[in-house]
C-alpha cells in the first residue's frame, strides 16, 4: 500500500484487524483441542473441522423438513369421488333387480291412460300390443355405499295404470334410480314426471304431458290429440314427425324439430338455447321465443295464421317458399333486417301474419331455401 493510500485507509485497516481479533478470541485449550481433532487419532486430517461453538449453533437449528405432497393425494381422491358421484350409473353401478308387470286392458272402455311418477331415472315408452300394458323396471344403485334403494309401486284402476318409484337412503356417497321400459297400445294418453332422467316416446297417439327435472325429452312419430305439454328444466327437446297442439319449454337447452306440424295455440320456448325447425308446418297461432339463442325456421306458414318469433340475444332466420303470402312486421334493436322478398307484404288473398323481432341480432327472411 502506498503512503497516500495509507493516509486514507488507516482507520479502516485498523478496524478490520480489530474485528478479526475479536472473532478469534477463544480459550487456548479449545483451540488446541480443535487443532488436534478432539483426541481422535487422525481426525486432525479428516473432513471439516467444526469449531465447538459453531457445532453447538448448528445442533440447535431445527432439521430441514421435506415438502409433503400428501395434500395432492387427498385432492385427487376428492376429485375422483365427485366425478364418480356425478357420473351416477357410470361409476360403481349395480343392478339391484329387474321387475316385469303386465296389465290387461278392458275392452269397450276409454283409451288407456298411463301415469308415471319416477323418483329418478329414464322413462322409455313405445307401442306394442293393443290389449295390454307391459312395464319393465330396472333398479340401479351406485356410489361408495350400498345403502340407497329404489322401490316401484303399481296400481290399475280400469284402464288407468299408475307407476310410482321411490328412492330411499340417498346420501352424499350414494344414490339410486329406476329405468322404466313401457309398452302401450298405439292410442294412449301418457303423463310422465321424472326427477332425474330422460324421457323418450315414439309412435304414441294421444294426449301427452311430459316433464323431467334434469334430462332430455325426445318425441317421434306421434299424433297428438288435445293440448299436450313437454317441459324440461335442464335438457334438450327433440321433435320428429309429430303433429298437433303442443306447448314446449326448456329452461336450459335447445329445441330441435324436423317434419313437425304445430297447430291451434302452440308455443315453443327456451330460456337459454337455440330453436330450430326444419321441413315443418305452422297453422293457427304459434309463438316461438328464446331468451338467449337463435331461431331458425324452414318450412311453411299457413295463411290465416298468426306467428310470432322473438329472441332476446340472437338472430331470427325464416326460410319460406317462394309462393308464400304474408304480412310481416320485422324489428331489431341491435342488428339488420334482410328481406329477400323485397316487401313486408307479399302475395294476394289471405295471408299469414308474421311478427319477428330481436333485441340483439339480425332478422333474415329468405326465399325458397
From TrEMBL:
Domain of life: Bacteria
Pfam families for this protein: DUF4097 (PF13349)
Spans traversing the lipid bilayer: 71-92
UniProt KW keywords: Membrane, Transmembrane, Transmembrane helix
Domain DUF4097: 115-365
Basic and acidic residues bias spans: 13-32, 46-58
This protein's record includes keyword DNA damage: no
Protein name: Putative adhesin
Region described as Disordered: 1-64
InterPro entries (alphabetical): Toastrack_DUF4097 (IPR025164)
Amino acid at each position: 500500500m502506498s503512503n497516500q493510500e495509507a493516509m486514507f485507509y488507516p482507520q479502516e485497516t485498523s478496524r478490520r484487524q480489530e474485528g478479526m481479533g475479536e472473532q478469534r478470541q477463544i480459550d487456548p485449550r479449545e483451540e488446541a483441542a480443535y487443532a488436534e481433532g478432539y483426541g481422535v487419532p487422525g481426525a486432525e486430517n479428516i473432513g471439516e473441522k467444526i469449531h465447538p461453538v459453531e457445532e453447538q449453533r448448528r445442533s440447535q437449528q431445527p432439521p430441514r423438513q421435506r415438502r409433503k405432497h400428501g395434500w395432492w393425494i387427498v385432492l385427487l381422491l376428492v376429485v375422483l369421488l365427485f366425478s364418480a358421484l356425478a357420473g351416477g350409473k357410470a361409476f360403481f353401478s349395480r343392478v339391484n333387480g329387474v321387475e316385469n308387470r303386465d296389465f290387461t286392458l278392458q275392452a269397450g272402455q276409454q283409451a288407456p291412460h298411463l301415469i308415471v311418477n319416477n323418483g329418478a331415472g329414464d322413462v322409455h315408452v313405445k307401442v306394442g300390443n293393443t290389449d295390454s300394458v307391459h312395464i319393465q323396471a330396472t333398479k340401479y344403485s351406485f356410489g361408495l355405499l350400498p345403502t340407497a334403494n329404489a322401490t316401484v309401486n303399481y296400481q290399475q284402476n280400469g284402464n288407468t295404470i299408475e307407476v310410482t318409484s321411490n328412492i330411499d337412503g340417498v346420501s352424499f356417497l350414494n344414490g339410486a334410480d329406476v329405468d322404466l321400459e313401457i309398452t302401450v297400445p298405439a292410442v294412449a294418453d301418457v303423463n310422465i314426471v321424472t326427477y332425474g332422467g330422460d324421457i323418450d316416446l315414439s309412435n304414441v297417439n294421444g294426449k301427452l304431458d311430459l316433464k323431467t327435472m334434469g334430462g332430455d325429452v325426445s318425441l317421434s312419430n306421434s299424433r297428438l290429440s288435445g293440448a299436450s305439454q313437454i317441459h324440461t328444466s335442464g335438457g334438450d327437446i327433440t321433435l320428429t314427425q309429430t303433429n298437433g297442439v303442443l306447448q314446449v319449454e326448456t329452461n336450459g337447452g335447445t329445441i330441435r324439430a324436423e317434419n313437425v306440424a304445430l297447430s291451434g295455440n302452440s308455443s315453443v320456448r327456451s330460456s337459454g338455447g337455440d330453436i330450430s325447425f326444419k321441413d315443418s308446418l305452422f297453422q293457427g297461432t304459434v309463438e316461438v321465443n328464446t331468451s338467449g339463442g337463435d331461431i331458425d325456421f324452414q318450412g311453411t306458414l299457413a295463411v290465416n295464421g298468426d306467428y310470432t318469433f322473438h329472441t332476446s340475444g340472437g338472430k331470427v332466420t325464416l326460410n319460406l317458399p317462394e309462393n308464400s303470402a304474408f304480412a310481416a312486421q320485422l324489428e331489431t334493436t341491435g342488428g339488420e333486417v334482410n328481406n329477400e322478398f323485397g316487401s313486408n307484404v307479399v302475395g294476394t288473398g289471405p295471408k299469414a301474419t308474421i311478427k319477428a323481432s330481436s333485441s340483439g341480432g339480425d332478422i333474415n327472411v329468405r326465399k325458397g331455401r
